Amino acid sequence: MNNKFLPISEDFYSMQCEGVTTGYPAYFIRLMNCNLHCGASSEFMKKVRRKSIDLDPGSFQGDLHKTGEATWTCDTIPVWIKGHKKPFNYLIDRWKEEGILDWVLEGRVNLIWTGGEPTMRMSQKVIIEFLEYLKNLYPDSKVYNEIETNGTGYIDDNLFKELDQINCSVKLANSGMSKDVRIIPDALNRIMEHPNYWFKFVISNEEDLEEIHRDFIKPFNINLKRVIVMPGLDDQKNFHERTLFSLEMGRKYGYIGLTRLHVSAWNKTTGV
Fold first, then answer.
1. DSSP string for residues in 240-270
2. Domain carrying residue 177
3. Count: domains in the chain
4. Is 250 part of any domain?
5. Residue pair 151/179 in contact by the 8 Å Cβ criterion
6. How far is it, in rounded angstroms, from Cα 266 to Cα 264?
7. What is the CATH number of the domain that holds 150?
8. Residue 123 lies in a domain
9. What is the DSSP string of 152-191?
10. SS3 helix, strand, coil % of the chain, rounded to 5?
11. Which tens digits make up the pLDDT trace of 4-51?
12. Model's pTM, two decimal places?
């Protein structure tokens, strides 16, 4: 009997709504905790961790707590800040309930490891252990593993080889996070060793595009065909305008311009 656990904030069957696999059926596994708190002040996060404020995801207004140069706020803070330890067989049971177990094992439904930040050391460890557990149960499985990371954690060899896709959402100054905590060269260079990596940038103005070139494209020699720009959206307000801006900037600078489809479909609702 396996008695190991995954620290899960939420998990759900949906569609991938960001990046190059937008529209693919996907099962999201959001792990607890993150090393960044984009858009939210340290004072606000202290209150969050003390549970002294309401964190209903449906009414969370992160823009009231912005810090520094932040122009957007992480919309999943209310989710990844909490969670529960779930035994490994929990996910197997969930896939059976959803009627997608065979699809997951065949790679027809992508597994999305997200957060929070799934490349934090302990998170990497439990992901590796879970995938080994899954292989032992279903040795012929062909699970498609995507990971969504902020690019600050060096990915361990054992996890690296299991990943079919790395979606790296590197944070700009518009996140309110200091440069020394959001740009980790060794971690970014490691990601670019993978044959299927993608960089996603949240943009709010044209200055962000200049920052992308100055701080990332030029020093790390990132392949421009693997760069995605998306609008900074907390909700559906100005959705069309901001999406159009991202498309125009993608066309102007030669990047892939996309939007955040889940905001269009479900607004602030999480877990769908």
1. HHHHHHHHHHHHHHT-EE---HHHHHHTT--
2. 5-223
3. 1
4. no
5. no
6. 6
7. 3.20.20.70
8. yes
9. -SPPPHHHHTT-SEEEE----GGG---HHHH--HHHHHHH
10. 40, 20, 45
11. 999 999 999 999 888 899 889 999 999 998 888 887 777 777 776 666
12. 0.87
